[in-house]
Amino acid sequence: MQPPPVQAGFDAPTAPDDATAPYDFSIDLNGDGVPDQLAAALDELNALAAQQADNPVLAAQYTDAMTRFAKRLPYAPETRARQQALWAVHERLMAAEETDAAVAIMAEMDVLRAEIALDPNFAIADRVLRQRFLNGLAEKDVVAVEETQLSVDAVVVPEGTTTDWQVFLPSLGKGGNDLQPVEPEEPCASQTSAANFGLLQRGDLLFRSVPNSFVNFYYAIKFSHMGVYNGDVVGGQPQVYESNIADATNGVPGGVNLLPITFWQFEGYCISLMRENTPHTQADVVDALDWAQERYGTDGRTRYNINFLLKEDDRCREDLTRCALYCSQLVWQIFNRLDEDVDSNDADYHNWLVGQYPDTEPEVVLDFAVRTVAPDEVARSAALRPLSEGTNPPR
Questions:
Q1: Are 378 and 384 in contact (CB under 8 A)?
Q2: Coil vs helix vs strand at 156
Q3: CB 111 within 8 A of CB 176
Q4: In-domain check, residue 79
Q5: pLDDT given for residue 341 in this prediction
Q6: In angstroms, how far is CA 250 from the centroid of its own chain?
Q7: What pLDDT does 193 receive?
Q8: Rounded to an integer, what distance in angstroms lies between the CA atom of residue 391 and that of residue 148?
């Protein structure tokens, strides 16, 4: 029997932790807003995740711990039923072949996610799982750099471009229903200033987050789009190398293109800038960027990849007309050229995904996580260090 939904932070007498019973989210003895049993389970999962490589015994223990974790999440039966339905729709998304079909499927997923978010215990778990991932991002050291010549003021939004331009997939809860999902925290809530675009040099990475919306990559905790700073000035604007879903309304071409940096500087966008943090030099990164631009083009000839599972499926090897890459997959391919895997497969990201689909076998969910490369996972890579982060101010 599941306990009634409760709010995190409510202190209650501690009790023995039955290894099969649903977690009791009412127990928060240190008052940090995180249920004690949930915190302990996540600590165990992360410790096993860090040790399991090349160790079949620990790998089996990790799988067992993840299975117990998924089963013990105190979601209502209706919530679990919706999560099973959500996974079924997710499988349709991974099989979609056309962008319009994928966007329609995501709208279906948004309705289910909004319904799931109404479960108080799911809301607690989801908040904790997201925050642990964000805490890991916040712990990364900032690169010490000097400002360069590019300034935010020097970048002008082209006339006729709407400042609400966004390469949006459907927003959470905007699928035609009247549900009110839990509002996420502002992605740059801890920042007091805008990201400093003046620090960028060729080969640096840009990450974008827009509150309560999914841009390009559907499974986003914080960052749902990314690109590589190219630096070449076209029409008075420095360019960013990126892959997008086509947006005819705002004149955004689909696929892999060079686009003006103005599309990253609209009011309210949370932007994070990062730089390579490995023994490779900037020249190495630039060589890899040049290789990618020659291979995949800069004019949309490489289409946007709507199947996130195809991280390693570089179909350009067989036929250039079959090339397809999503935004973070493009970046992953560039760094692969340097023998650098920027897919961190972050344990906190994996925990969050399992929390979304607790009744799907954890091995299946984790296989999906490993076969995709989310912008969030790239952001957690040890190969990258932050330069600057913040929310774009009004222009």
A1: yes
A2: coil
A3: yes
A4: no
A5: 95
A6: 24
A7: 82
A8: 20
CATH number of the domain residue 355 falls in = 3.90.1720.10
- To which residue do tokens 């559907």 refer? 218
The number of folded domains in the chain is 1
The total number of residues shown for the chain amounts to 395
Q: What are phi and psi of 67, to 5 degrees?
A: -65, -45
Task: Tell me which residue of 226, 220, 239 sits closest to 272, measured CA to CA.
Answer: 226
Helices 77-95 and 99-116 cross at an angle (nearest 10°) of 170
Residue-by-residue DSSP string for 74-96 = ---HHHHHHHHHHHHHHHHHHH-
Backbone angles phi, psi at 303, to 5 degrees: -75, 165
In this prediction, residue 32 carries a pLDDT of 92
Residue 246 Cα distances to 24, 262, 265, 305, angstroms: 46, 17, 19, 11
Q: Are 312 and 336 in contact (CB under 8 A)?
A: no
- The 8-class DSSP code of residue 162 comes to -
Q: Which two tokens stand for residue 381?
A: 């890579």
Residue 1: Cβ within 10 Å count = 5
Residue with tokens 């954890």: 362
Of 199, 220, 160, nearest in space to 387 by CA: 199
The SS3 of residue 257 is strand
Residue 103 lies in a domain: no
Note the pLDDT of residue 158.
42
| 113 inside domain | no
Contact 289, 282 (CB under 8 A): no
* Single-letter amino acid, residue 305: N
SS3 274: strand
Residue with tokens 């860090």: 50
Does 385 have pLDDT greater than 60?
Answer: yes
Domain that holds residue 309: 142-176+185-391
Measured at the CA of 167, the angle between CA 163 and CA 171, to 5 degrees, comes to 100
In this prediction the pTM is 0.85
Closest CA to 137 of 332, 352, 365, 376: 376
In which band, very low, low, confident or very high, does the pLDDT at 54 lie, cut at 50, 70 and 90? confident
Confirm whether 80 is domain-assigned. Answer: no
